[in-house]
Structure formats: C-alpha cells, structure tokens
Amino acid sequence: MQKIYKSHRHLSETQIKKRLEKQGWDVWRGSSICCTRETDVYPNVFKKYSRLALLLQDKLESLQYIASVHHGMPDFLCHRKNEFLFVECKLGHEQLSKLQKKCIIRLKELGFDVEIHKFVFNCTKTRIVYVDLNNGDKHVVDKQEKLKQRYSN
Q1: Is residue 42 part of a domain?
Q2: 78 is in which domain, residue-wise?
Q3: Nearest to 75 by CA among 49, 103, 47
Q4: Rounded to the nearest 5°, which phi and psi values hold at 5?
Q5: How does pLDDT run across 58-101, given as a tens digit for each residue?
Q6: For position 1, what pLDDT does the model report?
Q7: Which residue in 66, 70, 103, 110 sits closest to 88, CA to CA?
Q8: pTM for this structure?
Q9: Does 80 reside within a domain?
Q10: What is the residue-averaged pLDDT of the chain?
Q11: Residue 144 counted as domain residue
C-alpha cells in the first residue's frame, strides 16, 4: 500500500533525515554552518553547531566561506565515527543546480564525501548512478529492474 502525503514540501529532506539518523549519523543543516559566528540564535541551536565546530576544527572556516559565497551547500552535514558526509536531498524529478554542482566540487576538493539522495515513490524504481560533475558523464551501477528483465532475454 502506497503512503499518500498531503504535501510534497520538504518531503525528501524529512524522510532522508529520518533514514540517516536511523543509520547512526548525527545530522546538521548544511546551510546553517555559519550560525556558530552569530549571537542571535537560540541557545540549543548554538550549542548543537558549536559541537559541530569542534568536530570540524581546521575545515570550519573553509566550509563557512563556501556556504556564504557559493550558496549551493548540500542540505545536510552528517557525522559518524570520525567520518563526515554531505547529503543533498532531491525529490525524484529534481536536478542539481549549477551552484550546487560547483559547491559539491569544492567540498570534494576539501576531502569530504558528498552524496545525492533522491526520494522516489513506489512507482519509480531506484537506481545507483555516479555522475562526474565536471563533464556530466554518468555511470549507471544499478539499472531499473524492469529494464534488466526486458533486455536480459
């Protein structure tokens, strides 16, 4: 039975954040990384992002620069067992913008892992694709099941 959502607004972010937290990741909003510099934020928000600042240490300034200048920071910054991961959330039909592609390239240059997670509905089969953001080349790892069955015979 397919779940019916009243609204698709922020649907991909909420569902993907729940899944990341179930997998044991600590999750922060990527665009809010600059709030460690601000004084007019709620104390609990400041405390949460101060913890992130301690984890990032020397890379914090570079990330704050990317967030404030490039405006393409992924939706989430995740941390688990001394490992960082940036996650961009998209609904099935949405594409990355040029600013997001530039930001992802900058983050990879800094040594961070970046993933794009698409939230798709049951009628859409999921697949894994690696995309080279510099030239747009795609490498499909896992095709849709129906296509596999259709062309394997």
Answers
A1: yes
A2: 11-122
A3: 103
A4: -100, 140
A5: 898 899 888 888 788 999 999 999 899 999 988 877 888 999 99
A6: 45
A7: 103
A8: 0.76
A9: yes
A10: 80
A11: no
